[in-house]
């Protein structure tokens, strides 16, 4: 018969054995190449970064002609936009909003004028510009592996196709030997559009080599007046139905918005048309002649246009100016927080009283 001491020792050995087995199971359950997966994810992000984004922070319209739905939040919050999450603690968001209010209110009269809001919008837009410059440095290094400070169209094409799943070494070899690349029609169309954009970003003297500054214009046309013109031409080309290089209201609101399957979808489509019609008639069509020219659209698209910033400031104030004094008080901004931050703050009046 086993002694009590021997039985305890036996249990201890069994426990250690089971613990060892569980540790082994945990080790083998993890991906063996966990670190390489992370590196691959980072690389993938870098590769996506070499493509001109459709969405440009601080610009009112996307590259495809759609409105930037987050524009108001971007020019009011700047880089702090990500901090205002729907799931964030409301009291924390209120305090952040109060801090922003105090920064906009330069003369400390506890209300924000159109001029103060204009200055703030320009400052936040510049903030987005600087963020794009920093990101561009990383993306430029990704397409300039030899570090000579210039990237040729062929070098970029190789990186672009690699980001689309093509074998980079095979593509590079074919490009080097001027061999035909077997590319699907959709990818080829994108590549052709990118090549046009590449040529536009290549400042005189044209050498088909982009330096870091030119590459920034390629990815972010809002940084270059010439590229801004090119982006406007692309938008007009996509919307202009009669080929006169101008936009009528009917052309501007004719972008496909999806298949309407039910009343809710119909309401969304109706709101979309209403928003575009209002923007066309009240803002973009500067001389109100019912036609938007390339020049008018260019002025509208220019994020560093001070007149546009003042006009935007007045519109933002009008949205929440309940007492009609043409200024914004803190209570008004908190009440309309969803418009300014994308985050709705509940029981704003009671909480404002508590904060004060």
TrEMBL record:
One of its GO terms (biological process) is calcium-ion regulated exocytosis. Gene3D superfamilies: EF-hand. Its main location: Golgi. Residues 92-127, 131-166, 227-262, 272-307 form the EF-hand domain. Residues 1-29 form the signal peptide. CDD domains: EFh_CREC_cab45 (cd16225). It comes from the Eukaryota. One of its GO terms (cellular component) is Golgi lumen. InterPro entries: CAB45_EFh (IPR027240), EF-hand-dom_pair (IPR011992), EF_Hand_1_Ca_BS (IPR018247), EF_hand_dom (IPR002048). Belongs to the CREC family. This is 45 kDa calcium-binding protein. The gene is SDF4.
